[in-house]
Amino acid sequence: MTTAATGSGRDRVIIFDTTLRDGEQSPGASMNLEEKLKIASVLEGMGVDVIEAGFPIASNGDFEAVNEIAKRVKNSTVCGLSRAGRKDIDRAWEALKPAKSARIHTFISTSPLHMKFKLQMEPEAVHQAIIDSVSHARNLCDDVEWSCEDGTRSDRDFLCRVIESAIKAGATTINVPDTVGYTVPEEYTALMRFLIENIPNSDKARFSAHCHNDLGLAVANSLAAVIGGARQVECTINGLGERAGNAALEEIVMALRTRPDVMQFETGIKTTDIMKASRLVSAVTGFVVQPNKAIVGANAFAHESGIHQDGMLKHAGTYEIMTPESVGLNRSTLVMGKHSGRHAFRKKLEELGFNLAENQLNDAFGRFKDLADRKKEVFDEDLVALVDDTVAHD
Ligand code: KIV
Ligand code: ZN
């Protein structure tokens, strides 16, 4: 399945968000119905193409959440996960039926390790289960995704055979997950390319990447898969997910947007909603975003060192490769600390409403440096107190 080039001439990459399914599988991240509905609504508003809303057979709560999201979401495809059994698939379809655009996502493991120890099935039985499950799902729904769990540790010849069968049985998306975050970018590019080039009728399905972050490579691997021919990436807000998490939506989207010169693809994501989505997911799950997290961390657009602050005040492009506004932040923050210089100090005071004479500024700057040696970060309130003190002593 070729992805139509967009108005810009660049190929479109489908963003499949699984915050509500794989993200929720993160220990301690479970969400109630109300919270899931809020997140689904923000995902829809920001232009996510496919929202994986849950795993309907897992619990009545999951069923209800997928069903409610299916009823309410109009601008994104709503997807439900199921194992390879008919009961799972039927339950997923029952939850998804009200959706304007629905997708059944069915999966089974294909790696020797998983087939032998987890499934305790012979490869040929797994192959037959793939044909049966995908055919059954396709009889219910036009949009069927099939995933070969632990795809990156599967035998290539076996993978080619079962993917060919899944496409023949009606799968419209073929997802090749790096379930345990094991692959590296070059290997994943090569795997995607090999599958797409060697499987008969591979053009009848869209290939998809689904990366976990066990080695911290989930985003790099997702981008590598796109280079290899994948046109869907599966990801979560803030990189939420099992163990070390999934590929972070905001990082993939901003990488594609920031480097169109080397990554000639685009997404339909309204990037200015990224901070809103990040804050909501963090608030709902209680998972704090680490300060130095790319794109959405509190320090992602903060500048403390004097040299950087000075550069920023002259031209923001000196130390920012994207604008904070582009991800929904008002402006970058000058963080005042012991590395800050006079230029940034003066600017910060002006922002706080102080226009000091030169001698006052010198005095205040000296006091600020003493304070910054004692404190990691000097907050606005500290500066206000410090300036009040300076003016009082004048
Ligand atoms: O990581 C994985 O393999 C999955 C599949 C169910 C798609 O989440
Ligand atoms: Zn996963």
UniProtKB/TrEMBL annotation:
Protein residues bound to Mn(2+): D22, H210, H212, N246
UniProtKB keywords: Acyltransferase, Amino-acid biosynthesis, Branched-chain amino acid biosynthesis, Cytoplasm, Leucine biosynthesis, Manganese, Metal-binding, Transferase
Cofactor or coenzyme needed: Mn(2+)
Gene Ontology process terms (BP): L-leucine biosynthetic process
UniProt-listed Enzyme Commission number(s): 2.3.3.13
Coiled coil location: none
Name of the coding gene: leuA
Secretion signal span: none
Top-level taxon of the source organism: Bacteria
Similarity comment text for this entry: Belongs to the alpha-IPM synthase/homocitrate synthase family. LeuA type 1 subfamily.
Organism encoding this protein: Ferrovibrio terrae
Gene Ontology annotations for the cellular component aspect, listed alphabetically: cytosol
Sequence ranges assigned to domain Pyruvate carboxyltransferase in this UniProt record: 13-275
Catalysis: reaction(s): 3-methyl-2-oxobutanoate + acetyl-CoA + H2O = (2S)-2-isopropylmalate + CoA + H(+)
GO molecular function per UniProt: 2-isopropylmalate synthase activity; acetyl-CoA C-acetyltransferase activity; manganese ion binding
Protein name: 2-isopropylmalate synthase
Pathway(s) where this gene product acts: Amino-acid biosynthesis; L-leucine biosynthesis; L-leucine from 3-methyl-2-oxobutanoate: step 1/4
